[in-house]
Amino acid sequence: MAKFVLAGKTDCPLYAKAELLADALKRSLPNFRAHKISILPDDWKEWLEATCKRNGWKHKKSPLVWRELVDQGGKGMLLGGFSDFLEHCQDYYNITSDMPTDIMLSVAAENLETKMNLILEEQHRASLFKPLHIWISSALSPTCHLLIPNLLSAEVFPHVDAISLHLLDLEGGEEQLQGLKIEMENLGLPLLHQVSIHTDLDQAFQEAGVILLLDEWWPDDSDAENESEQERKNRKVKEVSDHYREYGKLIDTRANKEVKVIVSGDSFVNLRCSLLVDNARSIDSDQFVTMATQLENEAKAIMAKKLRVKASDITDLIVWGNISGSFYIDLQRAKVFNYDGAIKGPAFFSQSLLKIFHDRKWLETDLQDLVRCQRAAVASKTCQAAAMSAANGILTILKAWNGTCSPDKIFSLGVLCPGYYNLPDGIVLSVPVTFTEGKWSVLFDVTVGDELKEKLQLSASELRRVCQVTKILRDVVS
């Protein structure tokens, strides 16, 4: 069945006249069908040119009328403007239009008002729909691939209806990011609203509600033949500093003020977090954290083998200090469930780890060394970073931060330490925290003896030296 399509400017009197003529035909002819397309005056020229180009037509004025041989979307046959439509109706249906000019103008004004009201209603609906914007850096890394399928879930974001995901990778190609985008869209994740890809910082962190900064790729040093180890490290520190100062400034001006920022990876995580805090002054420093969850889980796995339990049976380990440098695994609050010892109990029964494992020397030496080597061992066997444990650590912290964990559960988190445990201000160190109602707070119900204080001071001094190097290198360049 043939159908007529009428398109025109909303304020066009001839379009109004064509509309009413089509309505008269529908009343007189039960099988007559017409579809109307109202275009705002400012958009008409562009729409008309695109439509004519697509169909190979030539037409300059409003309205535009054509016939389709099937329902909307079929092959179109151009009739022309209002005069052509009127002539067709007179010839085929013996129906004409005698609308007075004042009514024609009134209908045109009504068309424009109706169209504007529809646009306002749509804008209002759009304003009510506010997806959570999540930005992920180094999006082509293995960690990101493992992270995404579990990230966009109600378990991680229980109070979110939709998520817009932004994939940022400054070193990767747009084609690779496009492939990742398509793969994500094919997952059919219920919370996923849209995916955007970025290979530069032009739009970076716009409207961000969550920012996940994964380990970055640093240039290969192989060309620097005469470079000493210290010079190589200083160069890397400068590269990190330049990147993260810029990130911090962009987050400060573009992100949501309640943004949650997690710094992840193996390299300079405390420094990277500290640089963000220093350069995003309008955002609360509590919104920037770096996670020691990987170290916690690696220590749990090592202890679980010793105690012949599952790694998940060990809880409340504490990681103190510089996550990428001098850290310390503290077991003073650690608990063990399902231990096959002299004392047993139901599934909820736990025992202090220090009461069932008595080799203190091993805990203070071998355990610390094994944890330091664990991630390198994984990397050497898989030829890539420990991406799975990094992704799992991010998910663990996000769940806790979004209120899906017990307020008694202890986490190790790298945070700015303004006077905590008599540590110097302005240093990001890993300390024990708990989460309550979407906020973390430092756990002070722990014993910080002289030996632990000495280890913390060592971590703080290590980080202060790195911060001083970044300042010196920046001053040299400027």
From TrEMBL:
GO biological processes: malate metabolic process
Residue stretches making up the Lactate/malate dehydrogenase C-terminal domain: 298-466
Oxidoreductase is among the record's keywords: yes
Single GO molecular function: malate dehydrogenase activity
Record keywords, A-Z: Oxidoreductase
Name of a matching Pfam family: Ldh_1_C
Family in the record: Belongs to the LDH/MDH superfamily. MDH type 2 family.
Protein name per UniProt: Malate dehydrogenase 1B, NAD (soluble)
Protein species of origin: Seriola lalandi dorsalis
